[in-house]
Design brief:
Layout lengths: L13 H15 L15 H7 L8 E16 L4 E7 L4 E7 H4 L1 H10 L5 E10 L5 E12 L15 H6 L1 H7 L1 H23 L3 E2 L5 E2 L11 E4 L4 E5 L4 H9 L4 E9 L11 E10 L3 H20 L3 E2 L8 E2 L6 E3 H9 L9 H10 L10 H12 L8 E4 L21 E6 L2 E8 L4 H16 L10 H8 L5 E7 H9 L3 H4 L9
Parallel strand pairs: 3-5, 6-10, 14-15
Antiparallel strand pairs: 1-2, 1-4, 2-3, 4-5, 7-9, 8-9, 10-11, 11-18, 12-13, 15-16, 16-17, 17-18
Family: Belongs to the class-II aminoacyl-tRNA synthetase family.
Pfam families: tRNA-synt_2, tRNA_anti-codon
Organism: Lipingzhangella halophila
Length: about 500
């Protein structure tokens, strides 16, 4: 070992100090512990696929160059074994005295630690026990790992550490890597499903002068170039509708939204949504399309419409048709008394009090009925269910119901005890839309931090004529939570957390 020791290493844990000293020694010997590249010729997965049925104790004569991180190793006298993993799979490597020579084998034993990245050149073989392996005739350190990996059996057991150090979680937790794959597959399936149906994918602004498209509290920021206060997007809805006005009759966006409303196991301030709009469709048409897209996403992520739901819950098949129930009908069944849009507010309040459900004096009857649904019904709906026909007062962007003027043509998709998405027959009447947004702006002026603002440019767009349109928003994070039984911190790669 080198006599030159950096005193700054004294404060490091022993394993990190030893690795830093190895790093110094390698550099003194003229070895670059972080070379620019390595001549990789194939992936580990490709090697496994090509030689899946190779008999035990067989040499192929095929020489490959592979790379990977050292996850396990056993050091012997004349023969060492290691398991390395690249982004596709694991494979065993064998390093022997007669293939490498004494100097190279000794360097492996002295220089390589768990977690190091290495490049291996050698023949594809199987061991006497039939394990597919690479018999190395040369090796290269491609990146030195200066921190020890978590202990094999304990892993990264602290949930908080898994969130804060997602890179380590992914290194040691196969389930976390699988979540990334499933999320990617689900998003791709949603995108492909819309593309196949003639939808155009677009991007709309994240920085907005007027926030709208949902009732939510926005984040605020400031642009120095224009000396303007701006909002981070809470929804892309009003911009996507502008595009429908402009003649893009089938349009969608997979977007990041931001809502300043707290964080818990089901909410992250930054989240991913799919929104899509179709001219000459209504909320019934959009429900059918939403079901088809989500079922397709499940097949892409899990191989079928049967989703696993985690270790403690039964699998659920989300194939076939999904139930449709009305909001007021569901609340009536839960209360044991019929409640309609015309039931007096005082009576609904008494029904809430009889179930010990708190309510705000500012709420109208429709808002209170929605709250009763959330408290009494939502958590009971495991099978995906379209809950339809919401109160007019709580749906400022939705078309009035064709049969009941106190309702709107809106559904929420509830499944696995949570809201997964929402769909509308869109309000396209610019005069009525102005009236409703004016009401919202008055609520905002009165201190309601979630109320929408009056967006004059959006109203001007509607005045050019928007065709009858159906629209849908689906929460991607929620969808993965529902499919897997995991919380939002496990389905989002880098959730926002408090400073350590």
């Amino acid at each position: 070992m080198s006599d030159v020791v950096d005193d700054s290493y004294d404060d490091l844990p022993e394993q990190m100090r030893v690795r830093r000293e190895k790093l110094d020694r390698l550099r003194e010997q003229g070895t670059d512990p972080f070379p620019a590249t390595f001549g990789r010729t194939t992936s580990i997965a490709a090697v496994r696929e090509k030689h899946a049925d190779l008999p035990a104790d067989t040499g192929t004569g095929e020489r490959v160059g592979i790379t990977g991180r050292v996850m396990l190793y056993r050091t012997g006298g004349k023969l060492c074994f290691a398991t390395i993993r690249d982004g596709s799979a694991n494979i065993q490597i064998m390093l022997s005295l007669d293939k490498l020579g004494a100097e190279s084998l000794a360097a492996w034993k002295s220089d390589i630690d768990l977690g190091d990245h290495v490049g291996i050149e050698g023949e594809v073989i199987t061991s006497r026990r039939g394990e597919l392996s690479i018999m190395a005739d040369d090796w290269t350190l491609t990146a030195k790992c200066l921190r020890p990996l978590p202990e094999k059996h304990k892993g990264l057991s602290d949930p908080e550490a898994r969130v804060r150090q997602r890179y380590v979680d992914l290194l040691v937790n196969a389930e976390s890597r699988e979540m990334v794959r499933r999320r990617s597959a689900a998003i791709k399936a949603l995108r492909d499903g819309l593309d196949e149906r003639g939808y155009t994918e677009v991007e709309t602004p994240m920085l907005q002068q007027v926030h709208g498209g949902a009732t939510a509290r926005p984040f605020t920021t400031h642009i120095n170039a224009y000396n303007l206060d701006l909002y981070l997007r809470i929804a892309p809805e009003l911009y996507l509708k502008r595009l429908v006005v402009g003649g893009i009759e089938r349009v969608f966006e997979i977007n990041r939204n931001f809502r300043n409303e707290g964080a818990d196991s089901t909410h992250n301030p930054e989240f991913t949504m799919l929104e899509f709009y179709q001219a000459y469709a209504d909320y019934t048409d959009m429900a059918d399309l939403t079901r088809e897209l989500i079922q397709h996403a499940a097949v892409a992520a899990f191989g079928s419409t049967v989703v696993p739901r985690g270790e403690d819950e039964d699998e659920l098949d989300i194939g076939g048709q999904w139930p449709r129930i009305t909001l007021y009908g569901a609340v009536s069944r839960a209360l044991g008394e019929e409640v309609t849009p015309r039931t007096p507010l005082e009576r609904v309040r008494k029904l809430a009090e009889s179930r010990h459900i708190e309510w705000s004096p500012d709420w109208g009857q429709g808002k209170l009925v929605e709250h009763l649904f959330e408290e009494l019904v939502e958590h009971t709906l495991t099978q995906p269910t379209f809950v339809t026909d919401f109160p007019l007062e709580t749906s400022p962007l939705t078309r009035q119901h064709r049969e009941d003027p106190l309702l709107t043509e809106k559904w929420d998709l509830i499944g696995f005890g949570m809201e997964l998405g929402t769909g509308y027959s869109e309000l396209v009447d610019p005069v009525e839309q102005r009236r409703r947004l004016t009401e919202q702006s008055l609520l905002a002026a009165g201190g309601d931090t979630e109320a929408m603002q009056l967006d004059e440019d959006f109203l001007r767009a509607l005045e050019y004529g928007m065709p009858p349109t159906g629209g849908v928003g689906v929460g991607i994070d929620r969808l993965l939570m529902a499919f897997t039984g995991k919380n939002i911190r496990e389905t989002v790669l880098f959730p926002l957390v408090r400073p350590d």
